[in-house]
């Protein structure tokens, strides 16, 4: 796919125009077959045929800067002959991580690119050593799915010293765009929290007591999904009271344990907002163990995994906001453009679909 209509040197174009041109190109190429519904929330399209559909790029934020190889330093590179290092953060027990890694591997194979992969098993110190190992093995470019937002300095210095560009996917690292990393591709997590609140308000009628199963600490996803949810509840449903919040570490077992404590301490709880599906499914397990029936406690989760969307079909879960992990096509398109000397947006935000009782059954094939 051609990112630009002409091959002038990236510096020949004003940054904003170049960045917009690429963002528009990425949007045009956004290969999800999502159908926007009446309220504009992109709902994933139906069939299994779309199960591997990629990500749809949201309209670029005004004023976003662009990053160029000329400014970063280093030589142009044909990605096809290069070695790409991919650092995955969490163990692949979570379907989000399985689908994310699958997407990177599939795109590398499709492009005939040599791919080195590492999985930090949810240990940040291991992710730092994994990335240093990928550099030592000769990675020419890096794709990193960060576990944490802070603590990346050693890796950033090592990559910069070798002029190895980094694209981060999913979670944000606190570093300098265009200098420490050349593009960051992710969902809008605050918006996800707001949309989860909208589903919770609808499910509870905007009244009662709700609990939050927080994600793991130390990353922007937990912070932003919590902020979005709380802000929206305050704005639209002042009679919905948040009476409990505790981390389930994005894990199913911990989500179940925390929900068991919740049921003891708040027997009249009306709703549970789980900041990812794995914790939401843990909450379902706890409710079943307590003899509850589907719908007794309203559950809203974020990710869009197959089991959670099936939970919507079965009535245990009332809504799922998608967080699309299929970063492969966008990550490689961005790296390819950057290493050819084109300008790339420093941040690329993707659109996510949603599932509720109206579309869960027909759209189950889109879940991962
Ligand atoms: C969100 C991602 C989160 C998922 C969880 O993009 O960082 O991490 O929502 C995963 O399932 O643990």
UniProtKB/TrEMBL annotation:
Keywords: Signal. The keyword Ligase does not apply. It holds the Pfam family Peripla_BP_4. The keyword Signal applies. Residues 35-62 are annotated as: Disordered. Residues 1-28 form the signal peptide. Residues 93-342 form the Periplasmic binding protein domain. It is found in: Cell envelope. It comes from the Bacteria. Belongs to the bacterial solute-binding protein 2 family. This is ABC transporter substrate-binding protein. It comes from Streptomyces lichenis. The lineage of its organism: Bacteria, Bacillati, Actinomycetota, Actinomycetes, Kitasatosporales.
């Amino acid at each position: 796919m051609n990112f630009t209509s002409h091959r002038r040197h990236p510096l020949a174009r004003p940054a904003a125009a170049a960045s917009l041109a690429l963002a528009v190109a990425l949007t045009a190429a956004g290969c999800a077959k999502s159908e926007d519904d009446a309220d504009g929330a992109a709902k994933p399209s139906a069939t299994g045929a779309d199960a591997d559909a990629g990500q749809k790029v949201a309209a670029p934020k005004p004023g976003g800067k662009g990053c160029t190889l000329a400014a970063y330093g280093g030589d142009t590179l044909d990605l096809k002959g290069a070695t790409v290092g991919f650092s995955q953060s969490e163990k692949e027990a979570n379907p989000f991580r399985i689908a994310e890694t699958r997407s990177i591997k599939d795109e590398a194979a499709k492009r005939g690119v040599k791919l080195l992969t590492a999985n930090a098993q949810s240990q940040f110190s291991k992710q730092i050593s994994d990335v240093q190992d990928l550099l030592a093995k000769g990675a020419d470019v890096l794709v990193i799915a960060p576990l944490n937002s802070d603590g990346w300095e050693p890796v950033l210095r090592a990559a910069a010293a070798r002029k190895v560009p980094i694209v981060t996917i999913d979670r944000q690292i606190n570093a300098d765009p265009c200098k420490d990393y050349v593009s960051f591709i992710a969902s809008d997590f605050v918006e996800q929290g707001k949309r989860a609140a909208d589903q919770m308000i609808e499910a509870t009628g905007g009244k009662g007591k709700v609990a939050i199963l927080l994600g793991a600490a130390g990353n922007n996803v937990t912070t932003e999904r919590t902020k979005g949810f709380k802000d929206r509840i305050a704005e639209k449903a002042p009679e919905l009271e948040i009476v409990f919040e505790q981390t389930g570490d994005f894990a199913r077992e911990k989500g179940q344990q925390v929900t068991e404590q919740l049921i003891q301490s708040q027997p009249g709880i009306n709703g549970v907002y789980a900041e990812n599906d794995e914790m939401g499914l843990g909450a379902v397990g706890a409710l079943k163990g307590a003899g509850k029936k589907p719908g007794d406690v309203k559950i809203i989760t974020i990710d869009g995994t197959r089991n959670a969307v099936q939970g919507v079909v079965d009535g245990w879960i009332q809504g799922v906001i998608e967080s699309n992990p299929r970063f492969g096509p966008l990550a490689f398109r961005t790296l390819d453009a950057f290493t050819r000397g084109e300008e790339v947006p420093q941040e690329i935000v993707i659109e996510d679909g949603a599932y509720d009782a109206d579309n869960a059954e027909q759209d189950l094939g889109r879940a991962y």
